[in-house]
Design a protein that fits this description.
The protein has helices spanning about 10-20, 35-45, 60-70, 90-95, 110-120, 130-145, 160-165, 170-180, 185-195, 195-210, 215-225; strands at about 1-5, 25-30, 50, 80-85, 100-105, 125. With about 240 residues, it is an alpha/beta fold.
Length: about 240
């Protein structure tokens, strides 16, 4: 897995690099200290995962995430927002910008390594300290923060449009979507539905395609918008 680290503090970049380079399956291929620099580095190197700080000069991490997500050539790049802040405002904006994960900087090293692997595999990962709050509020936050008539990037709309798209899914796809919305992994969904993880992965991929969702984080939003998951049912 090829990783780029973006943070305006040299010590943070060096620390993350040392930690990840100890893993045989992870290679830190680049780093950046500003928003504009990380966009250039990612465009040039096309890594699997970017660890992205929020507060950086010359375009913050959320701006940089939006630029990367908007480039079709970078569709296989997955972004984890890593910050000292865990306010709902930042979490909601990060997911809306197209991030696949959100971690706070006091996360244990083993969890940071796990996050890189999970997101590189196409799953969404959120810091345990913010997961429940995010899953219960993010759908409304994303839509409420949008301008009138604006289509939130990666989220196929709301209301009747969301219902129509979800209704077009197969029964099994809706069932899998609902379980994704509660925060279960493919393996956990497979166990619950007595399916193979590969079969679940296929259902998730097809559902993402039909709903025009970039990743699982945006599937969670759709699951809430469609009423498949309700507040209090998400796993912390």
């Amino acid at each position: 897995m090829r990783v780029v680290i973006a943070d305006d503090q040299h010590l943070i970049r060096a620390g993350f690099t040392a930690l990840l380079e100890n893993e045989p399956d992870i290679d830190v291929v680049g780093s950046a200290a500003t928003g504009t620099e990380v966009v250039e580095v990612v465009t040039r190197l096309r890594p699997d995962v970017v660890l992205m700080d929020i507060r950086m000069p010359e375009g913050d991490g959320l701006w940089a995430t939006e630029q990367i997500v908007a480039d079709p050539a970078l569709g296989d790049v997955h972004i984890i927002i890593v910050t000292t802040f865990e306010l709902d405002e930042y979490v909601g904006r990060a997911i809306r910008a197209g991030a696949s994960g959100f971690l706070v900087k006091d996360t244990e090293p083993v969890e940071l390594i796990r996050a890189v692997r999970v997101v590189a595999a196409g799953d969404a990962l959120l810091s345990p300290s913010v997961t429940r709050r995010l899953l219960e509020r993010v759908a409304g936050t994303l839509v409420d923060e949008a301008e009138p008539g604006q289509v939130v990037p990666g989220v196929p709309g709301r209301g009747a449009r969301v219902s129509a798209l979800v209704a077009a899914l197969t029964e099994r796809e809706r069932e899998v979507l609902a379980l994704v919305g509660t925060g279960l992994t493919n393996t956990e969904i497979a166990t619950k539905l007595f399916l193979s993880p590969l079969t679940v992965k296929t259902h998730v991929s097809r559902t993402m395609s039909k709903l025009a969702a970039r990743d699982r984080a945006q599937l969670v939003v759709v699951a809430y918008e469609a009423g498949l998951v309700r507040a209090g049912t998400a796993r912390a």
